[in-house]
Amino acid sequence: MFIFGISVARAVRRVIISSSKLKMTLQNGSIISAHSCSSTVDKNHSLRWDLSPEEIRHQTQKLIQRIQQAFDSVGSVDIGKVCFENTLQVIADAKADYAASRHMLDFPQYVSPCKEVRLASTEAEKRLSDFDVEMSMRADVFQRLIVLQEKQSSGLMPESERFLGRLIKLGKRNGLHLSKDIQEEIKSISKKISELSIDFNQNLNEENTVLLFSQEELVGLAESYVNGLEKTEDGRYIVTLAYPHYFPLMKRCHVSETRRKMEMAFHSRCKDVNTAILEQLIELRARLAKLLGYSSHANYMLEMTMAKNSENVARFLDELYTRLRPVGEQERHDLLSLKHADCERRGLAFDEQLHAWDMPYYMNQVERVKFAVDKDKLIEYFPLEVVTEGLLNIYQDLLGLEFQQVENAHVWHDSVKLYSVLDSVTGDEIGQFYLDLHPREGKYGHAACFGLQPGCLRPDGNRRIPVAAMVSNFTKPTRNWPSLLQHHEVETFFHEFGHVMHELCSRTRYAEFSGTQVETDFVEVPSQMLENWVWEKEPLRRMSRHYKDGSPIPDGLLDKLIASRVANTGLMNLRQIVLSKADQTLHTKDRADTAAEFAKHSKDILGIPATPGTNMTASFSHLAGGYDGQYYSYLWSEVYSMDIFFTRFKKEGILNPKVGREYRRVVLETGGSVDGMDMLKAFLGREPCQDAFFQCKGLAQTITEQNSH
Predict the structure, then answer these.
(1) Terminal-to-terminal C-alpha distance of the chain
(2) Which residues make beta-bridge pairs with 2?
(3) For 409-552, where are the E strands, in sequence order?
(4) The pTM is what?
(5) Regarding beta strands 429-436 and 467-471, do their DSSP bridges make them parallel or antiparallel, or are they unpaired?
(6) Per annotation, catalytic residue among 331, 496, 519, 531
(7) Which of 270, 295, 324, 654 is most deeply packed, by most CB within 10 A?
(8) How confident is the model at residue 294 (pLDDT cuts 50, 70, 90)?
(9) 206 among known catalytic residues
């Protein structure tokens, strides 16, 4: 997931592993001190993470004043003297300054170990979001951009012309061509939407529910899982709703009642407060869309995407559903048979139903029974430090990069690591990234990439390097047990780091197009494409070793893992359709009962009822994180990502550096300065198609022969 407006990052506690076999050594990489690269840091990376709450408030005010002065200067330019230098260039420089400066202020809410700092950061984001609305409604600036387009558009460089056109388009989408009264109402609603969205996600970040279970209630869980749990004085185990606790329990715990309690709690997170917020957001978004002349909020959001409108999204999802429905029905039948046999074996009553708390457990059984994947054995080959070493080396080799860990780096928590990224040919530094990999109280609860500084040209013509952070919640190591990853967590690592590379490899002129600033339904393409590497033998071997003796994964286990990629493909993709359809439905209505809408789609499409009393959408952070009306993007993007992988990498070599560098040049470096479809055509050499997507899902035997001309 990429968080819009700000990239997402995560904090980690220090990992101490005694085995020398797990010491990370980057091929072609090195460790450099912060002092040795201080000139680079001073010039290109001035981000600070030690601001106090008072400093955050003070810096927020200073930033607002500085950017407002820039916009005031543009708004006061004599109409007859409008030119590129006094309008578009001033705005570009202000936007670059704003993006880098504000993330020092609004990013700490996701990762700071200090609650007071997190609260100050959240308040800063609210102030800055209000300010965003004010600046987006500057009719005086908009008028001068219109004049510039009329006078000089044809004489601008292509990226400058695209930037100008985008600003004017956004101005119209903000209602600057409408009456003053309507503009004021738009401004008021937009500020309220921003405030509510921040509150929604803050509630999730601060959520800290725990459940207590006896050892008997946790039967079936791996030794490594149980050993990592804290205990109460009376000997019960403390289980949180964080991903490293929740998902393994739901997949492995034999006790149905334990799973029921966990699923109920997980899908009741922030239920009361966030349900009210989300339903208010839906009404406000619908009202805003109507004021701007759109039939729905979904259509308003989709105008700037590849899909263009809700009708195209509905057609895409319906066609995919038609293809997946028979597969999902068979898989449901198989799960019910497994449950029946399981109940007989354990002497339990069989209720002839699949519940939400049954799904992860019996889907995991499919992998164990049908594909014979031994998850307990497999996890032993994925120690976090080995996975990290292998992943970084693969990305270096594939994209022509060199990563150097910065010692004694300035970070927000002592377990966070900072890396400098160099071009392997020129030796030039092209960016920096942070890794913050483990959960802690108050930290962002998912896995995501946060863009912290856009890459673009400075006012003096030199390049400002991009900076990003990857935040995740991988299991923390203990004194006696290393951090071991499930294979799906390795996949998550590859996915989110793909976003990091998109951020760091971009070479655009303007911050507006830096990195992942592409169409929302294209933003997941690069990261989803790179997930394929965790399903191929050679990359898997490079990022795995047994945590005890460093031995490789046995061929038989590796073959079974790769074959299991199509396990439960119908149900997993139908669930994505449920979420996409729910999102579309909620955002094509003027108001909605969010729990009822989700429950309806879950029953109708997935065939599984939502647990009464829960509301999954109250913790569906995408709906308040920039994906509202656009969650379909995950499936949409996957069509293109699979086409890229199978057409170029699978055919020419998954670790072929020539293809990797071409991919970096055509797709990653371009950022949002070119339409996503044009990038696809340039890299594929043809129009994209869906064949590879269906093959990957096990829905087609072979890829149709494609005409490359």
Answers:
(1) 34
(2) 449
(3) 417-423, 429-436, 448-453, 456-457, 463-464, 467-471
(4) 0.88
(5) parallel
(6) 496
(7) 324
(8) very high
(9) no
